[in-house]
Specification:
EutB_dom_2_sf, Ethanolamine ammonia-lyase, alpha/beta, Aldolase_TIM, 6-stranded mixed sheet, Annexin V, domain 1, 3 domains, single chain, 755 residues, TIM Barrel, 47% helix, Rossmann fold, 10% strand, lyase
Length: 755
């Protein structure tokens, strides 16, 4: 299904076209015209709102270009409470002055007016208008607008013209503090890392998050950088608040993933009221840090018939309104209203169902940079490629060069392009070195001075003999800790600790290749080997041998026709096919309500994670033992789902446990293969334990009341330990189900809910 627009008249705008064709304002046709104006993306095509051909796309853009901003503002593509909240961030006087402009006029103004004049109108641009003007721009035009509009963070050069910052992303498959510390030392050895030290945690248990927060905070305190840059553990904002309450002063900037509508935000366990309340607490130097990305709303089932660009722009509208609330909080606390608020656009993380090619990925990044800047935000990027997209390691380098031309505030920074925990491709430390050299970009002045004092670059900014040597940075860290041991002893200790980090499958980039921006050759070979291994894992199938080793197996499958359909069209893997649905209904009759816990196993994105020796079977053995000891009655059957995704497990729970009268909790453990790329061949366990009443409401059980244990393997989170943690979490979820409405519980963040 696609949108064909053939009979557009000269001088006609969107609303004139709709009324002529339909005889009335047709909301669905309006959404289709807006979608048809987009550059092609797989995500829009899946929603049936992509243009049928280039002629239709050109016609849709022509209609939009002649449409007045006031008319667009008066006809939101969809409405909810979040849309109303975003309107608070608009300047009514500026909005009125711009109402007679057409989108074509606005586009021309953005491309030609001085930056100060562009800044002067931004308060009058609504999120839908911003999305629509971006639809009209070519990639070159997006680069032009992005490279002339900037919003640096207060008191810094972060996000300023001529600067490219970096968020060091020191992720660890086991949340090991040493893995995290050493990746920070590694980044700083390349003079990279000036915006935020931001870790994606495996565990969102407050104690674990607190340990990672403390490790990051210690580094900044030791080097005297707490007023220069913040740190952040990207757990749910509720958890960060809990950690701050327990250990005041140990958290930095607070993070939260945002969606573009109220329903999708609930998937992240986020409400407007919650975010407003947290914004009111951010009275210090560092405010809020948001993560967004095109496609998350649709893949979570909340697209409202609208294209990805509309939803993404509204995320920035949400961020803009919250930024204003942080400014008010600072003012109320007697501080200057200088909100340190920025956005990280995670472009490409979901997979080929959203963007399949490098061209689509770049287009998304350029759109999002411009939309973020037109909302008055400092915006950075995680230019992502999952291993099942048609974007190679080399393609990613090309993407980074295209994106850098649009002036993003910052990019991610890891030892290599492969994240050892999230299993996707992104920006390496040495990519920053290359982009700085190629485009003449700078690091924030205060951190550049720090890197010179650290001794990794000289007074003229050129690499020293310590460039790319994290052991040297560790030596400076120990000296600032008051360590007086001889250099050789400390450096020997550094060598041992670095070896231990690598043993946990976390790479460190030591030294460089022929150019300082090239990976050291052996590390380059290792990176490419992991890439090839991941490509093999994506297409792996669950073996009959493993299934035969499981007792009491009930084999099920989803609506995916084959592995390719499963990879490219994720919704097909979210529902059981007819025969499997019937099989679960019959199983419910046989079980006759005697069990309150069920285990489901799906192949996921890497079936090898379940087949590797020492992975699935030890987990299941310990899980059953611990569940029984904790008082759960565990069904003997193992439900094995071919081509299963996370929501297929929720459907199983609905079919097995749904009971509109029963308030007791019912637990479902869904074991599923993670996306490959880390080399761990890890699997995850999705844990749900709402009441049978909640299971009885179709769609009620979703990611917002589910908890996740990720990175389970014999080389990361040990299967037996994961099983024990799963039972502990289920006890918490069950207690919540017994005492509160089934809307309370841990949430699966955006990056964890997409298997």
């Amino acid at each position: 299904m696609s949108v064909s627009l053939r009979d557009v008249l000269t001088g006609e705008d969107v609303f004139g076209y709709i009324h002529r064709v339909q005889g009335f304002f047709d909301q669905r046709l309006y959404q289709q015209v807006l979608g048809a104006a987009n550059a092609f993306k797989e995500g829009d095509a899946a929603l049936g709102i992509a243009a049928a051909d280039e002629t239709s796309r050109a016609n849709a853009r022509a209609l939009l270009s002649r449409t007045k901003l006031g008319d667009l503002h008066a006809h939101p593509p969809f409405e909810d409470r979040l849309h109303v909240f975003m309107l608070e961030g608009l300047d009514v006087a500026r909005l009125s002055r711009l109402s007679e402009w057409t989108l074509g006029q606005l586009k021309g103004f953005l491309l030609t007016a001085p930056e100060a004049e562009v800044h002067a109108i931004l308060g009058g641009l609504g999120s839908d208008v911003i999305a629509c003007v971006v639809k009209l721009m070519s990639d070159a035009e997006l680069k032009a607008v992005g490279s002339r509009v900037f919003h640096p963070l207060p008191g810094s050069k972060l996000g300023a013209k001529g600067y490219l910052g970096a968020r060091i992303q020191p992720n660890s498959p086991t949340d090991h503090p040493d893995d995290i510390r050493w990746q920070v030392f590694n980044g700083w050895s390349f003079a990279v890392g000036d915006v935020v030290l931001g870790t994606n945690p495996v565990s969102s248990v407050p104690a674990s998050v607190a340990a990672v927060e403390a490790a990051l905070h210690d580094i900044l305190v030791t080097f005297g950088l707490t007023e220069v840059m913040p740190h952040c553990v990207l757990s749910h904002i509720d958890v960060q608040a809990q950690v701050e309450a327990r250990q005041p002063g140990t958290t930095g900037i607070w993070f939260q993933s945002l969606a573009g509508n109220e329903a999708a935000n609930r998937t992240f366990d986020v409400t407007i009221e919650k975010m407003v309340a947290y914004a009111a607490q951010r009275t210090g130097k560092y405010g809020l840090y948001f993560e967004t990305g095109q496609g998350a709303d649709a893949t979570n089932g909340h697209h409202y018939g609208c294209d990805m660009l509309i939803h993404e722009s509204r995320k920035y509208g949400f961020a803009r309104a919250l930024k204003a609330r942080v400014a008010l909080a600072q003012l109320g606390a007697g501080r200057a209203p200088e909100p340190w608020v920025h956005v990280n656009d995670v472009a490409g993380f979901i997979g080929p169902e959203v963007f399949r090619t490098r061209e689509q990925l770049v287009r998304c990044c350029l759109e999002d940079i411009v939309m973020g800047k037109l909302h008055g935000l400092m915006i950075g990027l995680d230019v992502c490629s999952t291993l099942h997209m048609d974007v190679s390691l080399d393609d990613l380098g090309w993407c980074l060069e295209q994106v850098a031309q649009a002036g993003p505030g910052y990019l991610m920074a890891l030892p290599t392009r492969n994240d050892p925990m999230l299993s996707y491709l992104t920006t390496a430390f040495q990519d920053h070195v290359r982009l700085r050299e190629k485009f003449g970009l700078k690091v924030d002045d205060r951190m550049w001075a720090f890197f010179q004092a650290l001794g990794v670059i000289d007074a003229s900014g050129r690499p020293t003999e310590h460039f790319g040597d994290p052991a040297w940075v560790y030596l400076q860290y120990r000296r600032r800790k008051g360590d007086t041991r001889p250099d050789a002893e400390v450096l020997a200790e550094a060598k041992r600790e670095m070896a231990a980090v690598r043993e946990r499958s976390v790479p460190l980039a030591v030294g460089h290749g022929e150019q300082v921006w090239d990976l050291e050759p052996s590390l380059e070979r290792e990176l490419r080997s992991l890439y090839e291994d991941a490509k093999a894992g994506i297409w792996s199938e669950l073996s009959a041998d493993l299934v035969a080793r499981l007792p009491d197996v009930v084999e099920l499958r989803t609506c995916s026709e084959d592995r390719r359909d499963y990879i490219l069209h994720p919704p097909s893997g979210e529902r059981l096919d007819g025969a499997s649905e019937l099989a679960v209904r019959l199983l419910r009759l046989r079980q006759a309500g005697q069990w309150d816990a069920q285990i489901v196993i799906s192949d996921g994105l890497d079936a090898r994670s379940l087949m590797d020796e020492g992975h699935l079977l030890p987990f299941l053995t310990e899980l059953r033992r611990e569940l029984t000891a904790a008082g759960w009655s565990v069904a003997p059957e193992h439900l094995v789902v071919k081509y299963g995704r996370v929501r297929a497990g929720y459907q199983v729970g609905e079919l097995l446990f749904g009971d509109t009268e029963e308030a007791a909790p019912r637990a479902l453990v869904h074991v599923i293969g993670e996306r490959p790329g880390s080399g761990h061949h890890a699997f995850s366990a999705y844990l749900s334990a709402p009441s049978a009443r909640a299971w009885g409401q179709q769609g009620r059980v979703d990611h917002d009341i589910t908890r996740l244990i990720a990175g389970i393997s014999d080389t990361s989170v040990r299967p037996e330990a994961a099983a024990r943690e799963a039972v502990r979490i289920l006890a918490e979820l069950a207690a919540s189900a017994r005492t509160e409405p089934p809307t309370v519980g841990g949430s699966v963040e955006a990056r964890g809910a997409l298997s």
